[in-house]
Amino acid sequence: MGAWGPGLLSDDTACDVRDEYREMLEDGLDDDEATQRMLDSYADALDDPDEATSVWLAMAVTQSKLGRLDPRVRERALAAIESGTDLARWSDNPRLAAKRRDVLDKARAQLIGPQPQRKKVRRPRRHVTDLQPGDVLSYRAANGHLVLLRVARIDDDRHSVAPVLVALDFTGIRMPPQPELDTLADKPETPDRLGGVRPPWASTSWRVVASFKRIDHDTAGFHRVARTTARPGDPDFRTSTYTSWQSLPRELERNITDAPATSEP
């Protein structure tokens, strides 16, 4: 378990419990089945005194907020609070222990107090891109430089159907002809120096997670201008950089601030 603070959801296990329980409800499971599946899934964690507290509290508080508090979960969560086991983990830091005690007191009050009415849980809006693998997007930067991005693949997950973009190794102010476009390599990433300023093009690929505030590629300054051939490894291409259409132009502008557009005949 990775804890980064005294908050109720300030550890990996608690966040996972909250998210997985909600997803089960979003998928249409009834309350009893969702609860039982969670208990089965976290059986090993419930045998660990430290992790058990996180599981019971996260599940109980999440259920309570949704008006679905299971009596069994409530009693186990309250017992975990009363046992003092959780506070023992913070005994070497009095300041954090005091904050954790406040968190537990608040959780206890929520669990023993009047419960809200049962809330409907719906799946979040799932954005589906209309881009396709092989599409090439152009972005005209403030200095006149043309940035070209290709769609390596489409990533389909629970929350979105999103494009994975890769920058092409291109410098110019005009769109290259198709034969040249098909031979352009992917732009290499610049090694990131530890402790230093992040260099331009430290990332050259992105998963565009969604259209934020209804901003899609065509309203963020990107134009679908061509198609290009697939590259080896595209179906399994992975990137560690996630962004939105709203944020990507700012990153591209930062990358090319010191790269003036070339003059072309």
Short synopsis of the structure:
With 265 residues, the chain is of the alpha/beta class. The chain contains nine helices and seven strands, in the order H-H-H-H-H-H-H-E-E-E-E-H-E-E-E-H.
Largest sheet: 7 strands, mixed
Task: Give the uncertain stretches in residue-range form.
Answer: 260-265
Structural class: alpha/beta
Question: How big a fraction of the residues is strand?
Answer: 5-15%
Give a verbal description of the structure:
With 265 residues, the chain is α/β, with parallel strands linked by helices. It folds into two domains: 12-112; 127-258, no CATH class. It is built from nine helices and seven strands. Strands 1, 2, 3, 4, 5, 6 and 7 form a seven-stranded mixed sheet that branches. Strand 3 (146-156) and strand 4 form a beta hairpin. Helix 1 packs across helix 4 (49-65), helix 4 crosses helix 5 and helix 5 (71-83) packs antiparallel against helix 7. It starts with 11 loop residues before the first helix and ends in a 9-residue tail after the last helix.
Question: Secondary-structure map with pairings?
Answer:
Elements: H1 12-26, H2 31-41, H3 43-46, H4 49-65, H5 71-83, H6 85-88, H7 94-112, E1 127-128, E2 135-140, E3 146-156, E4 160-167, H8 178-183, E5 205-208, E6 222-227, E7 242-243, H9 248-256
Parallel strand pairs: 1-4, 5-7
Antiparallel strand pairs: 2-3, 2-6, 3-4, 4-5
